Amino acid sequence: MHQGQSRHAAYILAAGWACSYKLLDDGQKQIVDFQIPGDFLGLRSVLLQVSDHSIEPVTDIEVTEIRVQDLLDAFARTPRLATAVLWAASRDEAMVVEHLVGIGRRDAFQRMAHFLLELGERLTLVGLGSKAGYACPLTQYLLADALGLSAVHVNRVLRQLREAGMVTFRDGLVVFDNYDRLTDFAHFDPSYMDQIGPLLP
Amino acid sequence: MHQGQSRHAAYILAAGWACSYKLLDDGQKQIVDFQIPGDFLGLRSVLLQVSDHSIEPVTDIEVTEIRVQDLLDAFARTPRLATAVLWAASRDEAMVVEHLVGIGRRDAFQRMAHFLLELGERLTLVGLGSKAGYACPLTQYLLADALGLSAVHVNRVLRQLREAGMVTFRDGLVVFDNYDRLTDFAHFDPSYMDQIGPLLP
DNA sequence: CGGAGGGTTGATTCCCCTCAAAATCAGTGG
DNA sequence: CCACTGATTTTGAGGGGAATCAACCCTCCG
Questions:
Q1: Nucleotides of D under 7 A from a protein CB
Q2: Which range marks the domain in which residue B125 is found?
């Protein structure tokens, strides 16, 4: 899916990882978010009718297609579903906001630590991770484009976090060497993620 | 409205400016967005039941309160309204994403230029601005917290943009000295803002 | 075996921050 | 009328975090 496209469906990611990003005129890339199993793909593009961003697979993926018309029809029949989707969209926005704060006000180390922790939290919710660590197919280039850093600096930051005994990212595996010290260092507060659930009438 | 609060209403801003922001543990502030007349206030906080951010007036403001229950009841009676609100939420998220891209991948000059242009575009839509300029009550401190810069650097950037004959921000007034050159410089593409409107069943 | 993608490390440069100090202005009270 | 205060804007000097440039290594794969 690419920026500017219209007429496409939304999907739910069943397996694999994807990433949504925007391309700038000078060729730079800013990754907005990574999608893991269970996440919506392209919901906003459908609602706004024109995609304002691109989506790309990171690994091989499996998706379930949701046709726009079906979704809107379901809203009409089941208003509570509309509320639930609105809730899901709000939770997505909350994550983008947290990402914005990280890039705007945290240095590279806290930014990286916070990112790895948030990803771990999300993966734990769907049974793909724990406080020990998780499998992570992202390259250092992808991390750089997500965190607003250069790939070289990502490498340095990862090395220093590893040498500090807080977290090790190697061979597609994130291992939390000292979870508590890492959360402390990153000022990580997961409360903005584990939401109560949709507010239903 | 403050981070962590629950039980509050949503509002529509009738007059004045507000800003939504997050506070970090070390006291730094990241402004996520400014709200101008016509914008929703706190919609996400209501849907997620707990506010993940704070909202503060920038000027004196006038708001219209929307009670949560009324909103949800209206969704049940008028599904199209739910779709419309979902659309508005998506548009808000698109603006946050654009903000994220700006902070992640643009230097201070393009960031400032882009920000002033986007604000101008939004104000023009509600009749409070034009390609000539607009009244802007923001201080350089607020700009700094929004753009992820220091107030000192904001000042330098504004001076250089002024000396380059592109835009002048002085005494609460933004004047586009050369709109075309500024949009060119900032790679500003307003298409992500003037959306088609809600997709209705 | 050559090439591509990804990871690692060092040297240098530069953008932006921090610290510091004035200047300007609105309000406030003596 | 004027000193006094606080908020905001302005400008300078110096420092630091991250980018850029440039190698080199490894593994996988046709």
A1: 7-13, 17-22
A2: 97-193
